[in-house]
Amino acid sequence: MTHLKTILTLVITTLAFSSYAQDGFTAKTKGNFLANGTIGIISTNEKAKFDGNTIDVGSTFQITASPKAGYFITDNIIAGLELEVSTSTTKVEGMDGKIISDGLAVGPFARYMFDNGLFAEATVGFGSNKTSSIIGDIESTVFAVRGTAGYAFFFGEHVSVEPAINYTNQSQKPKGSSGDAKTILNTIFFSIGLTAYF
Questions:
Q1: CB neighbours (10 Å) of residue 150?
Q2: CA angle at residue 82 from 77 to 85, to 5 degrees?
Q3: Which long-range contacts (CB under 8 A, 24 or more apart) does 41-44 make?
Q4: In this model, does residue 108 exceed pLDDT 70?
Q5: Contact present, 111 and 75 (Cβ < 8 Å)
Q6: Measured between alpha carbons, how far is 76 from 126 in angstroms, rounded to an integer?
Q7: Residue range 45-50: average pLDDT?
Q8: What are phi and psi of 30, to 5 degrees?
Q9: Position with higher pLDDT, 5 vs 63
Q10: What are phi and psi of 75, to 5 degrees?
Q11: Which residue has the higher pLDDT, 62 or 79?
Q12: Mean of the per-residue pLDDT values for the chain?
């Protein structure tokens, strides 16, 4: 959580300074820059059915913080780099203690901004994940691909608030494992971001 607080502080500071940009500015123009901070929250409850009976398997709560910076390579098209920090807690029914996972990933992103405020974004991430439970720690390498569709509510030309729907496909491979053993996670979640243009 300390990493999340530090990143959020940096993002808010960047956004505050960017609000002093020059007059006559048009946000989605070639040569401009973007600084964004996004928070995503995921809450899931897993259930299983056996012989007509429904059993609670467990529940997971995850929060992600994703600061990013980008450059308008042409009007409406941005390319840049994103850092994602995540933490999750899973409670498994019938198991003592909780499973804690902390992840860190970095990778490029590209965004197209439509004239009506909608935007589409694609991100590729490379990183690592550490899972801790009563049976020990497991460290994994991570590769993820995320697609995002959202809307930018502009307040002037310099700042927008961006609610979005995200779909992520993520593979986690335990370090030191042999063969092609890995875990595949497919997730749909809601996020909200604050973006500055300068």
A1: 23
A2: 150
A3: 41/189, 41/190, 41/191, 42/88, 42/187, 42/189
A4: yes
A5: no
A6: 26
A7: 65
A8: -50, 135
A9: 63
A10: -55, 130
A11: 79
A12: 86
